[in-house]
Amino acid sequence: MELKLTRRNFLGSAAVVSETTLRPSKASALSRTMVAESNAAAKGEDLANATLTRAAVAKIKWKAEPFTMTEVRLLPIFWKNMMELDRRYLYSLPNDRLAHNLRVTAGISSDAYPPGGWEAPDCELGGHYVGHYLSSRALLHTSTGDEAVAAKANALVVILAQCLAKDGYLGAYPATFYDRCRAHQKVWAPFYTYHKILARMIDMYEHTGDQPALEVGLKMAVWADAYVSTFSDHEWQKVLLVEHGGMNEVSFNLYAITGNIEYRDLGYRFDHKNVFEPLAANQDTLSGNHANTNIPRIIGAIRGYDLTGDALFESIAENFYRVVNERHSYCTGGTSNGEMWHEPNGIAAQLGAAAEECCCSYNTMKLTRHLFGQKPDAKHFDYCERMLLNVRYGRQDRNGMLVYYVSLRPGMYKTLGTQFDAFWCCTGTGSEEYAKLNDSIYFRDESSVYTNLFIPSKLEWKERGLRLTQTTKYPNEQLVTCVVDAAPSKPTTLKIRVPYWATKRVAVAVNGEMVSVMATPSTCHELNYPWKTGDVITVEMPMTLHIDQAPDDKQVQAAMYGPLVLSVLQGSEDLTNSVIYGDTGPFGSNDGYPMPTANLHLMSHRHHELATIPVAPHAAEYNIWFEQVEATRRYPLQFRTRGRGPTDTLVPLNLIMDERCSVYVRDDMIV
Fold it and tell me: Which pLDDT tens digit goes with each residue over 111-169?
């Protein structure tokens, strides 16, 4: 069982450690794999996908691989706007301010004004955003080709390398924090932050070819291995009660790069038995656990499966994914309330102001992407799309400031950080998310292209000579168009995901000629053609109205339009800038409104008057208590409740900013 802590109301760690025998640390030599990668990095190649899916030591082959972000470019629309907002924010952060605490800890003078929030000198998570910042810049460089964004990150790596201790330690706080873990004293997750810096050094190496970053990462790993080796297995499990990020994943990644089994063994040392053993046995014991402490551990487990073939890791990851998806997720796909998991299927009972920590969605999407690569299934990207459209999209303001929680208590509102005084965990994962919005749109296998997400973009499969352009205003419109700009040199199947909600006839056409095969929801529709330059594929997916019902209270429901979660607008009373900006969530004592109700009095003539938008076939078991109405300039998609009593306006959750709202509505017609 995890300690019941949240990052917001941190209480400290609890790890009792006894005396054990020390063993000497062992520095790692470059393997043949690492030398080959170093040569590729020197040529400016993006190594991330090769390391992820084709490491020399890997035991499990991915059945589908993501295209590198250099092969996929976003086209102008709101997705690209989100990336540009992120780029602007990252450019606004000075290296000297971010490095201040690391320099001071290393005994190097700094006259920079220190950052605030979770990077303030008195915050024990200092340095975590520095790691996220490096990854964000590395990813943005790969996503856009922006050399300047990489150069600034390379310069920060040089500064951090100067802060590295002789034994390999690097941090914005002294190494004595780890002694406090050992002595059962209050401390805030030192390995969590250590992971953020170490993992992002690897990102810098893989995405920008920064060899010094890899060297820093290897030295940091030597220090971590030396520390871990001072504990018996039993005592180390107590230390693992403290949040430690994805230390298992980063250790396995170093094994993938170097081939050095010491990093593989270090990855195994970060197995947390309290969490892994029940999951391996297909047991749901997540209640009472801190959500985002554990999701990175599971990502580490599935990475361990890649490289070792250990089937236990596979069971842990797949069981976890199923349990969270089926029993601990809201209508948006997000998870957690108060940063914790609660009783299975407890949705209506957990509509909190601090629901859905955004980091959870970031990491769950990362895990889902990994699982899809191993066993391609359209349902994986049904799930990803839910989170991408309802949790990730709509979490930036016009200046790129970011949200921590997706509040679900009726009458709540989005709260955002500020430029230099937030640096929350969700600031970090958000900075990374919006830098890599093109990383999962397309996957490939030996003869196919998977179109997983409907995002305007250009794809180039260089080995086959295939160039493809996707255009769409989805989900505001239901048409997706793909144009073959250059024909492939070999027969190539296009596999286009048909979403779970697309229960009406999906119209697929090639050069205007309808494809006769019915497209089944939650599958990939396959198109096998002798593709020619100029071929046009169109996919029209009629949006359906449907309901997501809380399993613990059937009256509590969310309205959905295709993949979009709709939310009732509840006004902007008292929402000043000082209320919206600064805190991680809306925690005012007077906040919160009653849940809106839908009292649908069904009559035959009202059925006849319904809007022409199709209703999902399975919706017959529910009352569809909302309908689409005329759009406005602010809200291109707008709906209203229908039936007796007051009428409420609903709009997509991802479009709401500076307003109170309620995602869930109570349907009094359900008994």
Answer: 999 999 999 999 999 999 999 999 999 999 999 999 999 999 999 999 999 999 999 99
User: Is there a single domain that holds both residue 499 and residue 602?
Assistant: no
Regarding whether 576 and 509 lie in a shared domain, the answer is no
Find the DSSP H helices in 536-583.
Answer: 577-580
Q: How many CB atoms lie within 10 A of CB 111?
A: 7
CA distance 242 to 461: 44
Backbone angles phi, psi at 22, to 5 degrees: -80, 145
Q: How many angstroms separate the CA atoms of 446 and 663, rounded?
A: 42
Among 109, 69, 183, 111, residue whose Cα is nearest residue 458: 69
Confidence of residue 14 (pLDDT cuts 50, 70, 90): very low
Give the domain range for residue 621. 545-667
Containing 394, the helix (H) or strand (E) segment is none
Q: Which of 518, 540, 562 is the last residue of a domain?
A: 540
- Whether 530 is in a domain gets the answer yes
Q: What 3 state SS string does 168-199 have?
A: CCCCCCCCHHHHHHHECCCCCCHHHHHHHHHH
Q: Who's near 177: CB < 8 A, 6+ residues apart?
A: 124, 171, 187, 190
> Which residue, among 466, 188, 246, has the nearest Cα to 370 in the 3D structure?
246
Handedness of CA 524, 530, 533, 538 (dihedral sign): negative
Q: Which structure tokens are listed for 511?
A: 């050069």
Residue 521 shares a structural domain with residue 571: no
How many whole angstroms separate alpha carbon 325 and alpha carbon 344? 11
Return all residues near 444 (Cβ < 8 A) that are at least 6 apart. 64, 65, 67, 450, 461
3-state secondary structure of 597: strand
Are 356 and 334 in contact, with CB atoms under 8 Å apart?
A: yes
The verdict on pTM exceeding 0.70 is yes
Within 451-527, where are the H helices?
none
Instruction: Give me the phi and psi of 450, to 5 degrees please.
Output: -95, 125
User: Whose structure tokens read 């040392």?
Assistant: 269
In 349-445, which residue ranges form alpha helices assigned H by DSSP? Answer: 358-374, 378-387, 425-433
- Grouping H, G, I as helix, E, B as strand and the rest as coil, residue 276 is helix
Count of other CB atoms within 10 angstroms of residue 325: 18
Radius of gyration of the chain (CA): 25
Question: CA torsion sign, 242 to 351 to 79 to 561?
Answer: positive
Cis peptide, bond prior to residue 636, ω within 30 of zero: no
